[in-house]
Amino acid sequence: MKIYVDAAVVRDGSGRENAPFKHINDAAKVAQPGDEVLVAPGTYREYVNPVHGGADTDRITYRSVQPLKAVITGAEVLKNWQPYQGQVWVSRVANSIFGDYNPYTTFVMGDWYFGPVDKHTGAVYMNDQQFYETTS
User: Fold this and answer.
1) 3-class DSSP string for 59-106
2) How many domains does the chain have?
3) pTM confidence score
4) CA–CA distance, 66 with 88 (Å, rounded to integer)
5) In this structure, are 114 and 56 located in the same domain?
């Protein structure tokens, strides 16, 4: 079965070609082995967590209908930056933006990590450049 997704639709549909889902994760919830999820061009700011796995002979395929034109990202665009002090700017966001997992409350750590435990798993980017996190 083909399941359709298009971030540009005004109203969320059922996954049919004439009524696509708005989110890839909605398609991932219903996709079964052998299904193909066809994703329209656009930026999908979401977490995709498929419910069912495919099989060696019946995979679930996710495909951009125009190669390299569908982008899945966990990043959110913030436009409410305010001057704070000197060259420092601040933007405050509600914790609800993170859903069940806030990467700014979890430190990078583990038996594989030998650095100081003072950096969080979240990251901030501007113009494709990652900012460095400081402790103060």
Assistant:
1) CCEEEECCCCCEEEECCCCCCCCEEEECCEEECCCCHHHHCCCCCCCC
2) 2
3) 0.71
4) 40
5) no
Same domain, 111 and 62: no
Pairing of strands 61-64, 36-39: parallel
Range of the domain at 94: 76-136
CATH code of the domain covering residue 135: 2.60.40.1180
Q: What is the pLDDT of residues 49-74, one digit of tens each?
A: 999 998 889 999 999 999 999 999 87
Closest Cα to residue 98, out of 124, 71, 122? 122
131 and 113: one domain? yes
> Kindly report the CA angle at 26 between 22 and 28, in degrees rounded to 5?
130
